[in-house]
């Protein structure tokens, strides 16, 4: 994993050296041990909080695709059309059957009218009249059943349109025009939720990761702190309770990820504990023959080991004690390099 730049380390403890800088105005500087938080840079991947699949409700052949990867869609938008030639044949069959039922109903209605007339004249018995009425009622029920069957087939034809399940962005289209699909087969995958960063923190730092923690997110291709004015602040919203490959997974909520690609990686600075250090302005240190020295109040020089450098000072890892008074280096000595 990449490390933090010196500028970011300096920014982390810049506020804590303000009092030391004031003390240095009269020349002498009293150093105090201060606690600073360690920041480690890890990779995070842009993910969608929710993805949905637009699926085929009918089997058939993909007759047309209306979207491609990356397209933005709204709920109910038509994504593809699936056609089934058998449905049209069923419509034709139902239409022929309907014509036959219409003829049968017309004949039943004619028979009923004749039976009613003959019954009034006393030529036929009431049983024949009742049979004619029943035949007309059966024809009417047959027509209604046929109309319902046609509606079922027409609804199946309408369901050949694959609709977007929600507003979002198309991540993948799984079929091509002319492909044969089965009912329930996915046609497209859509990111319908907000974007977040999913980061993986090494196991040794996992215990420092908590929900609600703030993190720094660098701009595309840059480490947090490299361009501080472009960094964004994120918040850990979930820490998954399982280690995978020696890492813990956590979700980070960051504003302004809408222009990122799903799966794109970003660099995130996370807190990995704290430690006590000394911070000394560079004018109090000098380097001779590869060794860095600090000048004590009695005029003696003391070898120190330095760490990261920031805009307001240098991190001193060893060599100083709490309360040591330092004097600035003479002008001809120069600052630590």
CATH architecture of the largest domain: Beta Barrel
The radius of gyration over CA amounts to: 40 Å
Which fold name is given in CATH as the topology of the largest domain?
Answer: Elongation Factor Tu (Ef-tu), domain 3
Main beta sheet strand tally, sense and closure: 6 strands, antiparallel, barrel
CATH classification, class level of the largest domain: Mainly Beta
Report how far apart the termini are: 26 Å
Q: What is the oligomeric state here?
A: single chain
Order of helices and strands: HHEEEEEEHHEEEEEHEEEEEEEEE
**What is the total number of structural domains?**
3
Helix content: 25-40%
CATH superfamily of the largest domain: Efflux pump adaptor protein, beta barrel domain
Which residues sit in consecutive blocks of at least 5 with pLDDT less than 50? 1-25
Average of per-residue pLDDT values: 81
Strand content: 35-45%
Outline of this structure?
By secondary structure, this protein is an alpha+beta fold. The protein has helices spanning 6-13, 18-23, 85-121, 126-158, 203-206, and strands at 29-30, 34-48, 51-55, 60-65, 72-73, 78-83, 161-163, 168-173, 180-181, 186-191, 195-202, 214-217, 232-244, 247-253, 265-280, 285-288, 291-296, 301-310, 313-318, 325-327.
Draw up the topology in text:
Layout lengths: L5 H8 L4 H6 L5 E2 L3 E15 L2 E5 L4 E6 L6 E2 L4 E6 L1 H37 L4 H33 L2 E3 L4 E6 L6 E2 L4 E6 L3 E8 H4 L7 E4 L14 E13 L2 E7 L11 E16 L4 E4 L2 E6 L4 E10 L2 E6 L6 E3 L10
Antiparallel strand pairs: 1-20, 2-11, 2-15, 3-10, 4-6, 4-9, 5-8, 6-7, 8-10, 11-14, 12-13, 12-15, 13-14, 15-19, 16-17, 17-18, 17-20, 18-19
């Amino acid at each position: 994993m990449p490390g933090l730049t010196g500028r970011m380390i300096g920014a982390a403890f810049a506020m804590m050296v303000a009092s030391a800088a004031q003390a240095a105005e009269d020349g002498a500087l009293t150093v105090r041990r201060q606690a600073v938080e360690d920041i480690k840079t890890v990779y995070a991947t842009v993910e969608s909080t929710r993805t949905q699949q637009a699926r085929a409700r009918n089997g058939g052949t993909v007759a047309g695709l209306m979207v491609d990867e990356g397209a933005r869609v709204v709920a109910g938008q038509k994504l593809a059309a699936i056609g089934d030639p058998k449905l049209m044949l069923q419509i034709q069959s139902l239409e022929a059957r309907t014509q036959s039922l219409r003829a049968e109903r017309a004949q039943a209605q004619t028979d009923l009218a004749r039976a009613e007339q003959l019954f009034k004249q006393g030529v036929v018995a009431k049983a024949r009249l009742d049979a004619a009425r029943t035949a007309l009622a059966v024809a009417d029920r047959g027509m209604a059943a046929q109309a319902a069957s046609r509606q079922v087939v027409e609804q199946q034809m309408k369901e050949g349109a694959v609709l977007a399940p929600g507003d979002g962005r198309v991540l993948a289209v799984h079929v091509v025009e002319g492909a044969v699909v089965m009912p329930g087969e996915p046609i497209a995958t859509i990111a319908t939720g907000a974007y977040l960063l999913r980061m993986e923190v090494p196991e040794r730092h996992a215990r420092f990761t908590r929900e609600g923690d703030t993190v720094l997110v660098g701009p595309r291709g840059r480490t947090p702190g490299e361009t501080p004015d472009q960094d964004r602040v994120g918040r850990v919203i979930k820490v998954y309770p399982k280690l995978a490959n020696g890492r813990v997974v956590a979700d980070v909520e960051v504003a302004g990820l809408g222009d990122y690609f799903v799966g794109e990686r970003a660099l995130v600075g996370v807190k990995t504990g704290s430690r006590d250090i000394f911070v000394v302005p560079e004018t109090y240190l000098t380097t001779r023959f590869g060794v860095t020295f600090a000048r004590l109040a009695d005029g003696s020089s003391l070898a120190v080991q330095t760490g990261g450098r920031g805009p307001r000072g240098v991190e001193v890892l060893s060599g100083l004690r709490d309360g040591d008074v330092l004097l600035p280096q003479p002008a001809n000595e120069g600052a630590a390099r």
